[in-house]
Fold:
Amino acid sequence: MALLEVKNLHVEIEDKKILNGLSLTVEKGQVAAIMGPNGSGKSTLAYVLAGKEDYVVTEGEILFDGQNVLEMEPDERASKGLFLAFQYPMEIPGVATMTFLRTAVNAQRKARGEAELSTPEFMKRVKEASAKLEIDPDMLRRGVNVGFSGGEKKRNEILQLAMLEPKLAVLDETDSGLDIDALKIVSEGVNRLRSKDRSFVVITHYQRLLNYIVPDVVHVLSKGRVVKSGGKELALELEASGYAQYRDEAA
Amino acid sequence: MAEIRQIKTAAEQGLADAFAGAKAKLPGASVLGMREAAFEAFEASGLPHRRVEEWKYTDLRTMMREAKPLAGVPDAAAKAKAKNAGAALGLLDRRRIAIVDGTFVPELSDLAGLEKGLTIRSLADALGKPDGETVQHVGRVFPSEDAALALNIAFMNDGAVIHIADGAVIERPIHLVFVATGATSSYARSLVVVGQKAKVTLIETHEGADGADYQANNALELIAGDGAAVEHIKMMLDGDKALHISTLMAALGKNVTFNDFSFASGSAVTRNQLFVRFDGEGTNADIRGATLAKGKQHIDNTLVADHAKGHCTGREFFRSVLDDDGRMVFQGKIIVRPHSQKTDSKMMSNALLLSESAEADNKPELEIFADDVVCGHGATAGALDEDLLFYLKARGIPQKEAEALMIQAFIGEAVEGVAHEGIREVLMKRTVEWLAARA
Structure:
């Protein structure tokens, strides 16, 4: 059953067309990789899914779990189980990571009509999840991402993913700025969260990440739409031949 | 027929009448000359207005339409109203000193079991002793031609006089509770003398009922001896029709640690003046503030950091959150005297504007006469960061809650400079309450 259906999506930002009739289906429990050259619309897709305001959808629809998300605010989408791991996680001075996590978890639970987590239960979950990601408990007391290294910020995104337990996680270039050790920790974190009830959209420029997070399907994006889909071997082909042919095809 | 130009405004005339009627009855025969000189100086220029540089953004001539009658000695009803004042501090352990309508009220104050080295009495009592220390200090800690201070000197009727002996460490914060109970005017003046290497935490709360258009003009003189450590917190929480003017004058000796925090969220008009002078080397002053204004509130923080001696560090850090037609003024002046080398003084004012019609006016002034110093200032005014809001919302946090979290963090960065943990909690609780009332 399809968890996410993107149909003929056209998106503009400041009158510049970025997505040109993009269609994409992600099955429940599937890990879909989205690859493509710079400027092909990968990050735009991530932001439009999460509901960033600056992007104007001129045509098409996005169905998530059968519901039209284009009408929903970003926080509603999140509560329904849609998560975006940011390429550039924001710094929030003055808001401790722990407070941030707790506010987010409980806001989502409230929106879904569930009871808030008790303090001991929340603490237990944070401790477990952060230990697995090798996150120092001291980091949780500091302002969100303030003074964190690139790798720490990405691990913090995966910690949020683990705590929020979404149905669909969109990872926007989670590998950018990571050294090999950090890449392994982050990938293992993601792999632990894979399940038959959780889907992933893994956006990346490079094949490297897909050695660690092995996708079920690979979609190639060019000029704002999917130009080729295939199995995980498609990523290896791209690594060997580059994106040049897809640029030409789409032109 | 020639038009007769009214020289005095109604408020100025009211003040003149009030002074003429009250001066003989005000306490301290030995300070009568000082009162008269101060009032004369006031009358010469009148209420300050926008062409008076120090009051450029707070035109008192326009904002103060009339002079409210001088408050009398609080009666039983006034005392009953004042009983629960200062509740903003919650369960924080402190020693209460109640100043009701400008008058020190011992029966509402906690004067039992004073720590060794701590003495507290009323200004009226102290002024009655012409050769006492108090009379020597009053009006002399930070000489100023400021109109509000002149009025305070002229009309001062009472307040607290607190003395902390050399080396005394007063752990329990002293809480000066200023409360207005009617639509009157009051002029309290307090004096705090902190001995060498003594330590104290001083909290002021200012409050009164909503709807009462009272006028409070308070002043506090603080003298910190060499090696003293003083934390001073002022919470301005007055009623919504009030005109609040208050001035801190601090003279800091050598190697003093001075922490100051101004929290302003009350009154129709607030003018918060901080005059701080570095009288000895090796002194650190950390002066912070949080301003929360909404409706048509006008909150002016005016600060002078006067480096009379070198080798001192001054940090001024003010944050404001402005909603509706709320307006914040920050005037910060750093003076470095000719021989005050190695001065390190910086100030920063950041305003968060939550509406199109909110206004922040920042006026930094640097008067530097020494050549080996580090001084700087900065000011920003802007809306909440949209990208940050999106990040919070993408985690499932609704718009209002996300805004509140960001505003708390913004104010929190100023509050974190307060050393006393319990007071930090009080300040953040007030901020959260303000935000909750906004939603």
Q: What stands out?
A: Chain A has a mean pLDDT of 93. Chain A has one domain: 2-96+166-250. DSSP finds ten helices and twelve strands in chain A.
